């Protein structure tokens, strides 16, 4: 029995290391560093609609997506939700909250069954003190999140729904763009995508229909097929 338990434990540790190694934040770290981080990580599974944390909750640590999708969002006094970002497998989030005494600045909820790794605050900060290169990676990751938020603010305040959707589609294409067809998995419901784009489901449906009529895209189940990636990008 003890041998079986040991083998299961080793399998789980290997799975955690694989998840961490696939995250941009930890890309290029040594096997020993990945093992150290895996040793402190806790796997959490969330059903669709499960809450990871609420805005203002004390910060326990930051998270790395293993599977599924989690939205980070805020709700204003009128009850209107604004999605700040949606994270899928291989992405990390809430790193900036590690040094924020005021708690998480937004809420996080699974929009589909998900598995996430919690990297605990205290243990990870202790590791950062001995791994300056990892601290630099953290700064880089937070800079990317900040840049994404600035771009998002620009989209919501300065661009119409058509441009926001075109930007979203182009952003989810592999770079550099080509003239060939590109399949973009939707990854969420149209209602969630509309909220992420700061528009309504009705407006999103009309915009998708317009892009279809212009032969820029086609929609096949849970995928959006971009028929002319370069033309779509140039029209942004």
Structural description of this entry:
This protein folds into two domains: 2-158, Sandwich (Jelly Rolls); 161-234, Orthogonal Bundle (Arc Repressor Mutant, subunit A). Helix content is 43%, strand content 25%. It is built from eight helices and nine strands. The protein has helices at residues 2-21, 31-40, 121-128, 132-158, 161-171, 190-196, 201-213, 229-234; strands at residues 42-46, 51-53, 61-75, 81-88, 92-93, 107-120, 182-185, 217-220, 223-226. The longest helix has 27 residues, at 132-158.
Give the topology, please:
Layout: H1 2-21, H2 31-40, E1 42-46, E2 51-53, E3 61-75, E4 81-88, E5 92-93, E6 107-120, H3 121-128, H4 132-158, H5 161-171, E7 182-185, H6 190-196, H7 201-213, E8 217-220, E9 223-226, H8 229-234
Antiparallel strand pairs: 1-6, 2-6, 3-4, 3-5, 3-6, 7-9, 8-9
Helix pairs in contact: 1-2, 6-7
Quick structural summary:
This protein has 236 residues and is an alpha+beta fold.
Largest sheet: 6 strands, antiparallel
CATH architectural grouping of the largest domain: Sandwich
CATH topology of the largest domain: Jelly Rolls
Overall mean confidence score, pLDDT? 84
- Count of extended strands: 9
Q: Beta-strand percentage?
A: 25-35%
Order of helices and strands: HHEEEEEEHHHEHHEEH
Describe the global form: globular
- Number of H/I helices: 8
Give the total of domains. 2
The residue ranges in which pLDDT falls below 50 over 5 or more consecutive positions are: 1-8
User: Could you name the CATH homologous superfamily of the largest domain?
Assistant: Jelly Rolls
SS-based class: alpha+beta
- Helical proportion, percent range: 40-55%
Our Rg estimate from Cα atoms comes to 20 Å
**CATH class designation of the largest domain:** Mainly Beta
Terminal CA distance reads: 61 Å
